[in-house]
Design a protein that fits this description.
301 residues, alpha/beta, Rossmann fold, UDP-galactose 4-epimerase, domain 1, seven-stranded parallel beta sheet, three-stranded mixed beta sheet
């Protein structure tokens, strides 16, 4: 990938601060739009080799800023991603996330030299997964956050199909649960890490039977680079390493030799199982840098 101007929305967040670092270290000109809200890491501004604008992508003036930057590539990741917040404040989350996505696509369709727009989505758009979902299967979001991400999936298809300037230039990723440094402490693996340290008692929602797939954050940026260079349409990004919360706790205890302290808990509206087929991204030539165990060991030990 030749030196390029890469714009990352939400680039101070947990996942995409790592992505910003990766592309900046490779010599690209990285630009970040971030509103410094919950989950953001504004303390990284002076350390990142990137141009950072404190800006809410849901605001009208975001369109003009994106046009002014005139990036070669856009990675649109900015969103309120807390499921519990989306359940408590659905109007806020839907309005913010949907407007931010529309602003990015509106700006992108007027960029004559844009090479690729990558929209970041989630496995949650599939809803309950009784089998490993492929990218061609119906999306069936079951909470407001997932609904907002599914909206973006449909916007991507509509803009790619309708506007000549974007035809063949849009792509989408659907991540499984990403974990690693800088992650919000309310998420499952940071919570397990805090419990191992004796700082937290982990609530086991639905008896700890909820099943998710997991991937270490340092696998993400190389996957995105490959997709920006060669990808089209949609890619599930997962290692297919899936665990219930109880099994995840057992893995953490096995790696560290410490105990995860737990209590009973409940989470209304929780989907019990997400799982995706990763054949498509593997066929693109993706080779993860870290196995699940290697990532867990680096993160927990």
């Amino acid at each position: 990938m030749q030196k390029s101007r890469i714009l990352i929305t939400g680039g101070l967040g947990f996942i995409f601060s790592h992505v910003a670092e990766y592309f900046a270290d490779k010599g690209h000109d990285v630009y970040i739009l971030d509103n410094f809200s919950a989950g953001s890491h504004p303390e990284l501004v002076n350390d990142l080799k990137a141009t950072v604008y404190k800006l809410d992508c849901a605001a009208d003036y975001a369109i003009g800023m994106i046009r002014k930057i005139a990036p070669d590539y856009i990675i649109h990741a900015a969103a309120i991603s807390d499921v519990d917040e989306s359940i408590q404040k659905p109007l806020k989350v839907l309005e913010k996330n949907n407007r931010a996505t529309l602003n990015v696509f509106e700006a992108a369709r007027s960029l004559p030299y844009l090479k690729k727009l990558l929209y970041v989505s989630t496995d949650e758009v599939y809803g309950e997964c009784e089998h490993r979902k492929t990218e061609e299967e119906i999306i069936f979001p079951k909470n407001p956050y997932a609904c907002s991400k599914a909206f973006g999936s449909l916007v991507r298809i509509a803009y790619d199909n309708t506007y000549e300037s974007l035809k063949g230039k849009t792509v989408e990723t659907r991540f499984c649960n990403v974990f690693g440094p800088r992650q919000d402490k309310r998420k499952i693996l940071p919570a397990i890490k805090a419990s191992l340290a004796g700082e937290y008692i982990l609530p086991l929602h639905n008896e700890g039977t909820g099943f998710r797939e997991y991937i270490y954050v340092k696998n993400i940026a190389p996957a995105l680079e490959l997709i920006l260079e060669k990808g089209d349409r949609v890619y599930n990004v997962t290692l297919n390493d899936g665990y219930t919360v109880r099994e995840l706790c057992a893995e953490a205890e096995k790696l560290t030799g410490k105990r995860v302290n737990t209590r009973r808990g409940n989470r209304p509206g929780m989907d019990m199982k997400y799982q995706m087929d990763n054949s498509r991204i593997l066929s693109l030539g993706w080779k993860p840098l870290y196995t699940f165990e290697e990532g867990m060991r680096e993160y927990l030990c």
